Amino acid sequence: LYGGSNEKGIIYGNVDIDFMGGTIYGNLYGGGKGGYSDSNSYGTFVSRNAKVVIGDNLSSKVPHIIGNVYGGSSFGSVNGSSNNNGTSSYQTSVVVNRGKIDGSLFGGGEGDTSYTPNVFGNVSVVINGGTCSEVYGGGNKTPLAISDVTVNGGNVTSLYGGSNEMGDVDSANVVVKNGNIGSLYGGNNIGGMTSNSIITTMGGNIGSLYGGGNLADTNNSYLYINDGVISSLYGGGESANILKGSMVNFNGGDVTSLYGGSNILGDVKRSDIVCSGGKANDLYGGNNAGGKTDS
After folding, report:
1. Which of 13, 113, 186, 218 is the most exposed place for a label (fewest CB within 10 A)?
2. What is the 8-class DSSP label of residue 57?
3. pLDDT of residue 48
């Protein structure tokens, strides 16, 4: 299901998709399909906002998506009407209220080895309920400026503030108010880089929380732990570097093990932990199993 055009075309306005029930056996895109090849095949564009809403808490219907969900396009552009659009004040957003997503949810676009889709505005992902396998504030193979992910409820297996296989993200912001998350990463998954990751917890249950990425590096990570139950917390990444520094502000909540550095691998230039409340059974300023923390 595409909110935009097929091979080429411009939507001169907003796209709003409300998927309230039934089953989608493939993928869902807020934008269009085609990407830029040449001046005759300029791709697809959604010039203004692209918004996808899944499920309604007031309804008994449970929507089911077997594939992936993208707030952006498959290979085209959103929040602009040309490939040289520049930064836009329009937004791409995905809201999940109810339902089940078997694949991955991306705030941005898809992309492949030939096409890099554009998201010219900021990205917002809000999880109010439902069950999601993977959630990305960024895209699959696409860069973007700012991603904002808010979890108010529901169940998420893995959540990334940044992108997946490639694509740099300037700022990835994650706020957890409630819900259950298996693993939470402030940065990217396996490729690209996040310049600044910011995670704020105000509740919820989290298995492992990383200020950085999984295998992808992050410049700076900032963690504000105000409440919630967290098994393992790392200012760094799982197997990734923090190139400049990690800052953990521990103000409340219940953490079993807290590390200022990374977990399995990854060097951390500087690790800072400030404790003003909460409970941590074990606290380490440096890394866990591998890598090093310089200071």
Report:
1. 113
2. T
3. 97
